[in-house]
Target: Guanine nucleotide-binding protein alpha-4 subunit
Amino acid sequence: MIHTQRPPSVSGSIDDPLAAVLRPSPGESPHDKELRLQREADAKRISDRIDEQLSIDRERYKKSKQDVRLLLLGQAESGKSTLQKQFQLMYNPTSLEEERISWRAVIYFNIMRPVRRIFEGLDAFGDSDDDDDLDLPGSSKIIASSSDLTQLSPELTASGSSSSPLSPASAAAEDAQIALLRSKLSPLLAAESSLADRLSGGLNVAGSGKGNVYVRSGWQARSLNLPFGRSRSRGDSVTGGRTSISAARSSLDNPPTGAGGDLLIEEVARLVDQSKDDIKQLWQHPAVRRLRARRKLRLEEWAEFFMDNITRVCSSGYVPTTDDILHARIQTMGVAEHIFDVAVHGRVVTWHLFDVGGARGQRHTWIPFFDDANAIIFLAPVSAYDQYLEEDPRTNRIDDSLQLFTQICSNPLLKKVHLVLFLNKTDVLQKKLSRGIRVKKYITSYGDRPQEFESVVNYFKAHFTQAHKRNNENKRVLYTHLTSVVDTKATKSIITNVSDSIFRKYLEDAALV
Ligand SMILES: Nc1nc2c(ncn2[C@@H]2O[C@H](COP(=O)(O)OP(=O)(O)OP(=O)(O)O)[C@@H](O)[C@H]2O)c(=O)[nH]1
Ligand SMILES: [Mg+2]
Model:
């Protein structure tokens, strides 16, 4: 028989420090005993609570492993956040309702910026009368972005682009009108940077050439002191540790409020209401129409949308409509996680939808989200053929989208992820083509193919499909949809369809595990 000495660490209760603490002292009085029992009961309660929390966490973790994780990827302005709003509208409409009024600030900002750009355009090109479609990178165009004159009636376009020079008297009269409008709108323009600061929480993002404003997740709720439903940034999430959003505190966290709410926003609301007729006059001014007709001034689609709705949007008591919210533009910073419960085939599954910032400087923040993603919706704005990246004015936006899509298809972490491609902004593409903005001029390989929607879309689609095929060892299916994600009815049916296919793949994967 072997006798061994017990090592001190496993020795019995005699040497156990914990037991020593809990052991009654030899001469324990009844009062001491009561205190000791109380201590023991407290310790047990705390220990039970820790066990309970650990078990909840374990359950939550196990359950969250069963959740669906969907990433929305694509370059800046491709429509990711707009698509996220459509998901929100379908699966968590109350939260959109709660934040509805907070969108006013973004929409006011979406009005101030184009007003300033119009004046900049008039300063730079007001006198020149060369008819122009110069969209070469590095050209001196003031606004190297998006849309065109699709909203102009032929009559306006004809008068606006008239090549007959103005008489000196007419030119002087126009100059005086513009100068007056500039002076009347100067208080509004003076408020632009305060509003930008309020929206971004003072964050300045390097490389935002147009002075764009980035917001991080949850700004709507912070602006109203609301709980943000079940939407949160990854930085706030229970899993934590993969924060990609700057923790800079937003001034929206504590906006100075008065009886009517945020004082700055109320002041801006008063200013836009006062200025609405002048803004309208500016927007419809012949000098501005001429600039737009010559494409010297090209405003983004949302800017045109709000300019066309100026009286309604600037009137006092304005509450944004859902359509307004879908058109509102604010750049996403980092990665924002939105959580929805989705009922598919009679089963409710929690979906985590990750809406990322698409600008080049934001893309590194996507990577930590790749390893447990189930599905990706990649958005490529097919209307962007005549645009260049704001971050890199030499890169055509379609080209960038294609390169980005190739990287996503070939990324080893994403090889098994269900892949959906949205060829988005088809409505804008239609309008550009009907305006005669030639594809060949920007995408030379398009050659002499027809300037028709079908042909253009098929051409781009073929390139994306090709990029997918070249990087598809796993024979994964690519689901492609032509979309305009501002169109609620059409997008709803696509989301239903996509959710269904994502869920089917999810069930297949679960069965294999
Ligand atoms: N007309 C039209 N506008 C669209 C469409 N998709 C998006 N937009 C508008 O384009 C703008 C940019 O869309 P966002 O959803 O903010 O773009 P994003 O991909 O989230 O951009 P980042 O956050 O910068 O990465 C918004 O004003 C949208 O209303 C579309 O299909 N048609
Ligand atoms: Mg966004």
Summary: The pocket of magnesium ion (ligand 2) is lined by residues 80-81, 332, 355 (CB under 6 Å). The longest helix spans residues 30-65.
